[in-house]
């Protein structure tokens, strides 16, 4: 394959490989046997992958690991030097040993769509037959009966909502607190438009996505029927705030 021109082998991959056709791919693995395993080694996409991964494992990865090892050692010396030579300057914190806090407020997206999603959205995605959105029957039953256990807002069970807190890789799972320090959700994602906030934070478009604490409680209490866990928590309701 290495002697072929790019256009030639790319055409071969897209016309002959099972990896470019979902029906061929599914059928292949449904009827998988020893003969088919031998056959896949002749698949043009598999051959290309094998060549790339071999070069990567043997030549690129060892150099990359060696580079990172040397960089880590030098970075420790560099940071120590900064602290010694520039004692009055502000230095970045140790991300693995310090508490990091981002602050902002709930906000809809710049597309002006509402800033929260509900359980209805989960059911809509399930109807697409995408395996990523498979649901057990109990979720549908509880939704149809509107058994929200008091965790709904005006008849809607929120699932997620957005705010303009800064979020990046490593923030997933962080607790989200309101101004009184009450736990109101779990930060776990950001929309595609917000990837830019790693380089330039813009409150007009950067959003983080939070799983609503009420939905979490609903899953524990109503869906999973784990009332014993709820009994261990101190849950603050709207009534408690007044």
Give the % helix. Answer: 40-55%
Task: Provide the number of structural domains.
Answer: 2
Number of β-strand runs: 5
The CATH architecture name of the largest domain reads: Beta Barrel
CATH topology of the largest domain: Thrombin, subunit H
The N- and C-terminal alpha carbons lie at a distance of 73 Å
Please report which band the strand proportion falls in: under 5%, 5-15%, 15-25%, 25-35%, 35-45% or over 45%.
5-15%
Summarize, please.
With 242 residues, the protein is of the alpha+beta class. Helices cover 44% and strands 10% of the residues.
Which features does this protein show?
242 residues, Thrombin, subunit H, alpha+beta, five-stranded antiparallel β-sheet, flat, 10% strand
């Amino acid at each position: 394959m290495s002697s072929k021109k790019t256009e030639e082998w790319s055409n071969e991959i897209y016309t002959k490989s099972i990896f470019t056709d979902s029906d061929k791919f599914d059928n292949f693995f449904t009827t998988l046997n020893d003969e088919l395993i031998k056959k896949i080694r002749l698949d043009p996409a598999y051959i290309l992958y094998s060549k790339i991964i071999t070069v990567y494992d043997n030549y690129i990865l060892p150099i990359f690991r060696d580079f990172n090892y040397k960089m880590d050692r030098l970075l420790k010396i560099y940071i120590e030097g900064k602290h010694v030579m520039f004692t009055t300057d502000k230095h970045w914190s140790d991300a693995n040993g310090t508490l990091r806090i981002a602050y902002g407020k709930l906000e809809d997206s710049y597309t002006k769509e509402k800033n929260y999603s509900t359980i209805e959205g989960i059911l809509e995605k399930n109807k697409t037959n995408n395996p990523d959105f498979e649901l057990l029957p109990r979720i549908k039953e509880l939704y149809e009966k509107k058994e929200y256990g008091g965790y709904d807002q005006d008849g809607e069970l929120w699932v997620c909502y957005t705010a303009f807190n800064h979020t990046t890789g490593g923030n997933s799972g962080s607790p989200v607190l309101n101004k009184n320090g009450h736990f109101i959700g779990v930060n776990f994602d950001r929309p595609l438009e917000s990837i830019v906030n790693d380089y330039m934070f813009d409150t007009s478009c950067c959003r983080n996505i939070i799983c609503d604490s009420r939905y979490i409680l609903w899953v524990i209490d109503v869906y999973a029927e784990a009332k014993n866990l709820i009994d261990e928590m101190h849950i603050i309701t709207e009534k408690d705030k007044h």
